[in-house]
Input
Amino acid sequence: MIQSRQKGYSLLELAVVIVVAGVLLTAGAGLYVQRAEQARDVSHQALVAVAENAIQGFLFARARLPCPSTGSNGVENCQATMGELPYRSLGLAEPPLNTAGQPLRYAVYSQASVTSTQDAALTVLKDRLHPFFAASTPAVASAQALGNQNGLDFCQALVIAAGKAPSTRHLNVGQNDSNYVNVAYLLVNPGTRDSDGDGNLLDGLNSAMSDTSPRAEYPDRPADADYDDQVHAVYFSQLSQQMGCVNAMTPGAAHANALSAAAVMQQAMIEYREQLELIAFLAGADIAVATADTLKSVVDTAVTVAESATSVASAINSGGGLSGALVAAGLATGLAVVSLTATTAGLAFAIATAAISDENVSNFQAQEQALSAIRLRIDTNLKAADQAGLYE
Output
């Protein structure tokens, strides 16, 4: 009897098929996760772009950041620092929603101070930029409030905020109290599921965010089984760069420095002019002294001439017996004439010196007036630049 051979897969072949199928399924699952992550990132970036453009437009128009909305009406509430994106206040017809139909959470940094030069409440428009310059003579530099409120003051608020000590009481991103950084504002996309199972779509530190606990997760925290939120944070320096604050504030600082330099120079010129005026005064006094010396020499010469005449007459009457006195009288007359000549020359020199001194004072006063005009123009330009603001 002929036995028929059974057909089918051997155990080895079946094992190979299972391994190959497993590899394909694993690769497919990985590719699916990768594509899902990419789609998630693209969706988040598009959502953030809409919000960012609206926030930037608001900031450029009002020179401050918007306050969050604490209700569903999309209107900002400046009593709060955390809530939802205030889409109506930002000019949007409807709130930007993620793929699960959830709105973006929004939070903003606010550290107010009664001293405007220390105020970092980014949702408040305030005159914070007080240039440091010398506004008077003698030149004493101090911070000067110019009374304008615009984008330059917001730029200064970013400078102030960046210079403050790190604070857990103000908006920050991080992991704990020893690993965090303060930020200007942030947006949180709550994802599509309650990954950590706490009954809130927000996961991790994001779920506990409040005005008294203003901390979100780091933006680079990856998604995992317990976390599918996405955080977009904007840092102080980043926002300053986006607004062009450095380029806008540099001319104002240069104006202030130039104005201070002009004030110092003007004070030095005032003191130098006073020295020139003193020299001119002394030159005038020298004229008076030289005039007195000349008059005295004239009188002395006259007396000497008179005495010489008397000596001549006496010598004639004596028949030559007093010829020695006659010689002495002649010498005295000659010396008197020499003295008169010298004092006259001294008077001429004093008059010339006084004229030069007066001319120096006059010329220097003209230079001083020119510097005053320059200083006035610098002051005008400084105030005009501060009034113009960031985008004029």
Remarks:
- The mean pLDDT is 77.
- The CA atoms of residues 2 and 8 lie 19 Å apart.
